[in-house]
Fold glycerol kinase.
Amino acid sequence: MPRRNSNAPSIPVIATIDIGTTSARAILFSQQGQEIAKHQIEYSTTASEAPENSKNTDQFRRRSSLMRHEDPIFSAEGIAISITDNVEIENNKSSVGPTLRFPQPGWVECMPVHILANAVQCLVACLITLRKINQNPNLQVKYKVKCIGIANMRETTIVWSRKTGKPLSGGITWTDTRTSEIVQHLEKMIDEDRKQELKEKTGLPLSTYFSAAKLRWLLDNDDTIRDEYEKGDGNLMFGTVDTWLIYHLTKEKSFVSDITNASRTYFMDLETQDYDDDLLDFWGIDPSKIRLPKIVSSSEFYGSFAAPNLSNLGFHNKITQEAYDILKTITGVPISGCLGDQSASLVGQLAFSSGSAKCTYGTGCFLLYNTGITKLISDHGALTTFGYWFPNLKGNSGKPHYALEGSIAVAGSIIQWLRDNLKMIENAKDIGPLASQVDNSGGVVFIPAFSGLYAPYWDRGARGTIFGMTQYTSSSHIAKAALEGVCFQVRAILKAMASDAGASEDFLEEALTSQNEKKPLSTLATDGGMSKADEVLQIQADILGPCVTVKRAQISECTALGAAIAAGLGAKNEEDRIWKDLDDVLEKITGGDAESNIFVAKLPDNERRRNWKRWEKAVERAKGWLDQED
Ligand code: ADP
């Protein structure tokens, strides 16, 4: 007879929902940051309408509605639990239509109800795993979900009806560029002083990314939304993905947005952490005609979990009774943490101190540099955004933390290009071994400016360029130069951010000679698909030089872990939290120090300096390739 463990001591776990641009996942974390259960759904797409560059990529796989466990799951105690059954979460497998749609070139829409359904299904799958783990007779403890945290893609804009809860159109994702005309028009209307004034207030440049332009587009182009707006009877609700999820996943129907998300709308003033009349006016938004969510911290009680009724929202693949039953086990659990994805990975990388930075090498590359409680406006084109705000913590830790953000448009996608267009490799993972067949790039410099050069160069007319090829150049040299091209840009952004933060012209060189000066950056925390390759991180360390150690996250799911940390600090009373404070987080979650995850410069200083000079020369030559009229 198996021993019953109903009286077993309970171990708290944190449930997280992580909504990405191409997939959704839920992960249950322990206090040590271990993954107890995980489930991921890749979004289904209208593949036939997918833009050229997204066809054939493995990100756009079909979604599965079944949960399968092929590998054993390990409990926190290290007990392998094999779960062999398939659990059906949806009643019928007929297609409910895609989660992502590409209705026109440059348009990327997401279906808000599907996103919600994906989040629910991922949660259900994790809870089923948790139940199986808890039923294991060898386990002396019982895991219990104590709080819930959310991380999400930012800027994506959703408008819905308060009466029905249903979205009134597809969500416009952050990558969608349909608003370019609106943005160009506004850019022409205002002078440089006004631009600077807006930037000081929002931390953002005028761009198609941010939610304001997307909402403006909906009000100008969607008849239903415009009619509701004109009626002005309080039915119209605006939100980003965090707001949409929290609204539908809380019993109270909490209508909130955490500051890291709200700071990406272009409606919020970074100083007041609230909506700004001048900004709303700039976009022609009348807040008496559309409800805007209350801006809240990243870590507090937002509401208690309750499963949404997906059929009422028009999701016709009904969730099974078993799935709803298991969701009851977390009904009432507080949702107490929320962060936009890049902020979440800053937190998940434990980059809490001012001057620490993280770099996520995904399809594109996102760099965040924590500037603590100081708001810095970049002179080099970095954005100012919120890192996190954990108000329950004492002293400065409890104040909103700012970050400078820089991104590189082409990072992992250069590897996809070498794979799919040049057929140089079969799989992304082959890039490291190919590049390491040579000691250096043989004088080749690859500027991967496929759609122009971004921070800190800002040259829209630049295009991808390969310099320095000779008869001797091989595919390995090109592969190496391509990886270097990404890593040089990371160096350029870090240099620019450090100088925004008051460091000398090139802190990476300066710090080599100065004795006592506090270094602007000593460790670069990394994650994302491309960081799996040791070769990439070694190249990065060699390019940054001996002042900076490059460290790969031991826990690969930094974004979800960040949401877990925010949720785990969300209770007012210290004894109700998963972690007392940030020191406690650092003490309990000890990851990333394994030697195989640490990379330090090996390249001699003179070679590093020569390579950097060569890169800068190449950048100058690549700039302005397209003429204005091109
Ligand atoms: P995203 O979240 O943007 O979809 P990921 O963090 O999943 O991105 O990273 C995907 C990118 O990582 C791909 O562009 C791919 O080229 C690259 N990648 C994946 N695995 C490896 C690997 N082993 N070595 C180098 N690059 C890799």
Q: What stands out?
A: The CA atoms of residues 158 and 244 lie 7 Å apart. Confidence is low (pLDDT under 50) at residues 47-88.
